[in-house]
């Protein structure tokens, strides 16, 4: 990389890198560094004089002559380290402190420290450094925030786009961010524990699928060269998990990465994590109670309580939750009764309520728009919306009391759906008819309808699937609520973003080459002799400069019809 593309600090750090090597210190050693303690452990189990070996990033350094203080940060937190010249260099040679520590260490460097534990005069637990080892040289300075005497923070690393693109920096300089992802891990662990104790089996199903099924969504398409067939990134794992119920498992679950080629916003990412579980011999009423118990358990595991705050809302995951049918919900907030209405009547009702619809939308989509626009946002506390119209649920059993509806619920929290569950459809003839209706909608122009019928799944159902209830939970959205984060990007380590454009570092130019090139950039396409005059270089330096720029393919020289020579950037 050209020094032209580097900041002064980056240039300095690269020079220091060479000095370390000249000094006989490998800035990137391969050997294992034997740790005995972590920062948090030393503080929690304080013992005066205890010998410890720790490692981490140097995050603060205050040099005071022959004694200096610093902060070392590992994955458990920070601890103060005390560098004393005579402790580090007990002999005559003080260069390890005077040269290496004072001149060759930078903030962000990884170092190992051997020393003893003590308390400073103000009572801060610290490590007296007896020996330190360079473990990894940081070539790029961290954007470290600074707090002034009045407590005002400067240079904080808070720009969302920078934080998401450089999550590795975000985690280092904003330690509170790490807690979100620790809680995310706790959520997955708690959910696994709950299912495993209930006797259900964690499984894995294909991510690349020949038919994108199990949900209404637009898939990502790829191509398998060996088989010469299109393949689809999965939009859901539902149909594969049901195949396992057919195969004789009474309860299976999976944390699945799903992919939907749709819009992005604060609650949607094209790649997301869902949990789906299917349990034989159960129905959606049982699943509602199971979901209440599950979320209560998970909330306590993550936060130590069922109550949490999300923005301006106080919510509580303690069971039981409110239940209301979709028909009653729409009736309550719009005054319109969807029961028995035709597609035309539903479209007219949407238009009357100023809901944007089009001719491609079938009954299911129209009802979904009605509910989404007028009802969904009103449910703050956990609420089960039950009994969805049959047109909205092609994989769900008809309601045992009213065949125009299905045995389905969605769990709403703070106006957003976080869980979806069915009494699963196990009638293969009914299922085929529902699939055929989806194909009709796809042909009509609905880009979210499934345009292909999974014949193998229908064949599996024909062998017989026991009565089953299934539940899906959006894990990203759930952890958003449990950690009070309004943007899904905050709970994903690496959210999807537009491709970053990196400027290629240009070639290293000598002084004369740089002078000519800078003039050319200022002048634009210009007469060669005129540029030479402005450069003020001797013939020899000018010729060498031009030769160098041509070699780097940075300039073009053209001879005009009148014999004049013109120069421009390549």
Summarize the structure.
The protein has 570 residues and is an alpha+beta fold.
Query: Percent helix among the residues?
Result: 25-40%
Strand percentage lies at 15-25%
Q: Any guess at the CATH architecture of the largest domain?
A: 2-Layer Sandwich
Number of separate structural domains:
3
Which structural class should the secondary elements be placed in?
alpha+beta
Number of strands: 23
Architecture blueprint of SSEs:
Layout: H1 8-22, H2 39-44, E1 51-64, E2 67-74, E3 77-84, H3 85-88, H4 95-104, E4 110-119, E5 125-136, E6 146-147, E7 153-154, H5 160-165, H6 167-173, H7 175-197, E8 201-202, E9 208-209, E10 221-224, E11 229-233, H8 238-246, E12 251-259, E13 271-280, H9 284-303, E14 307-310, E15 313-316, E16 322-325, H10 326-334, H11 343-352, H12 363-374, E17 383-386, E18 408-413, E19 416-423, H13 428-444, H14 455-463, E20 468-474, H15 475-483, H16 511-523, E21 526-527, H17 528-535, H18 539-551, E22 555-559, E23 565-569
Helix pairs in contact: 6-7, 7-9, 7-15, 8-14, 11-12, 13-14, 16-17, 16-18
